[in-house]
Amino acid sequence: MYTIGKLSKKTGVTVRTLDYYDEIGLLQPQSTTEGGHRLYGEVEVFRLEQILSLKFLGFSLDKIQCILQEPSNSWEDAFGEQLIMVQEQKKHIEELEQSLRTILYTIQIEKEINWELVFGIMQLFQKKNNKIDTILNQYMSEEEKEKILSVNMDEDKMEIWVELINEIKENLHAAPESEIAQKLADRWIEGVVDMFGEDKEFLDHAWNAINEESDGVMFYPMTKDVVNFINEAMLIKEKRGGIKSETRS
Amino acid sequence: MYTIGKLSKKTGVTVRTLDYYDEIGLLQPQSTTEGGHRLYGEVEVFRLEQILSLKFLGFSLDKIQCILQEPSNSWEDAFGEQLIMVQEQKKHIEELEQSLRTILYTIQIEKEINWELVFGIMQLFQKKNNKIDTILNQYMSEEEKEKILSVNMDEDKMEIWVELINEIKENLHAAPESEIAQKLADRWIEGVVDMFGEDKEFLDHAWNAINEESDGVMFYPMTKDVVNFINEAMLIKEKRGGIKSETRS
DNA sequence: CTTGAATCAAACGTTACGTGCTGTTTTATA
DNA sequence: TATAAAACAGCACGTAACGTTTGATTCAAG
């Protein structure tokens, strides 16, 4: 027999919580003393552990009460539904993460927040039909889409890109044939190859997609001006010969 | 100038929500009519869109109020912190998903819920030091650990395992050299190769880990009896010669 | 000027408890 | 066994972000 305080210490839940569970009828004491103090037995300890487990797994107290009352028929249903709910939450959280990353890197590039971008991201996720898919489908095969979507840059790589794009933005006025423009284009190529390898066809498709949609929010922060700058520097590079890149079909 | 109803229709948020935002001072009308009806201007529309975006990104109304008041100094900090929070949530949700999956499959195998397993999973996650890591370290290299942790079975594959383990449990009495035992062992091998390939060293390490820890909850539902059954069937297979598997060192 | 629609203010409900508060019961010590 | 200290019961308010309801007031159209 445990008093409410002993049970609290044994299981690590607060007295108030046990109080609350008693109040809503989720976990009631086996008996009480003459004075009205609550006493819990082993059965209640086991039930409490069940409750805590189900709570950890994300069930509401309401749901817990329901499924602990039922004679054990629909465990599979309950857990199946819960798994689906959790999967949906996970998907949503991954979208959040992606959005936050994009915005964060943009802040680092532009030194201030870009509300147009933020609003754009919102729209991207509020449209039911996945706009990203639609656009990518115009330029790439299924495998290529997989490849571009599965890229996840780590902090270090992203920092390199942020720095590069920052420098490009500072030098947009530079002539395509200038040394600085050529060096920036070299670094761009280096970064692209590092991310996607040297698959020329894939790179061309990706480049086309970026070129056509770079005013939108999808490929942020590769904006039109940045893409144009690199594009022209690349053309010069080709004319001078020797470089394999073949942007623009 | 929008009345509260027009603004509601324009932006899709309910009147009550705008009411609430006014109440807590998050979004207040530009002016009011003589009768006390609220009027919102374009500035307020923009601010509302900011609010909705930040809310979508997971900020609390409190935080939103703070960061919209500040003169724009610490956007980077705010989004950085938010990203970290979201990443923690994601990690937690992935643990949930894994737990739910394990329990769900176990329900399907045992036709009822196994509370010892559930409690075991709780303990596994409540211990601060990751017990999984400790155990795997005893048997496997870093790369091998990566390999075994990165396995994610889809519904179909899991169903095959569930079925196989169910059949094994039904036939635990069968002699290791019986035809049925041998066939089950064959299917086991087939499944393992499908998941991890034929890397013999890796399979041996994994088999050792499972053998030593199969009374715990880690490799559920590969319990001791199931593992022993397969183990003995394998030994027979070896004696009869020809099969490459070399379980037990 | 009269409707009917829109709006306002206020209050209570939601989840899963935390944080007090007062008054009573139990336990430990003298 | 008396008394102090600890534990306990029970109540009530607070949290976040609104939903829901009610009744009174104001606006816009005819």
Which chain pair shows the most residues in contact? A-B, 38 and 38 residues
Helix count of chain A equals 12
Distance between the termini of chain A: 81 Å
Low-confidence residue ranges of chain A: 243-249
Number of beta strands of chain A: 3
| Oligomeric state as shown | homodimer
Query: What is the average per-residue confidence, as pLDDT of chain A, rounded to a whole number?
Result: 86
Biggest sheet features of chain A: 3 strands, antiparallel
Q: What's the order of the H and E elements of chain A? A: EHHEEHHHHHHHHHH
Radius of gyration of chain A: 29 Å
Description:
The structure is a homodimer of 249-residue chains. Chain A has twelve helices and three strands; from the N terminus they run βααββαααααααααα. Chain A has 249 residues and is mostly helical. The first copy, chain A, has a three-stranded antiparallel sheet with strand order 1-3-2. In chain A, helix 5 runs parallel beside helix 9 and helix 10 packs across helix 12. At the A-B interface, helix 3, helix 5 and helix 6 of A face helix 3, helix 5 and helix 6 of B. Chain A binds a DNA duplex (30 and 30 nucleotides) through helix 2.
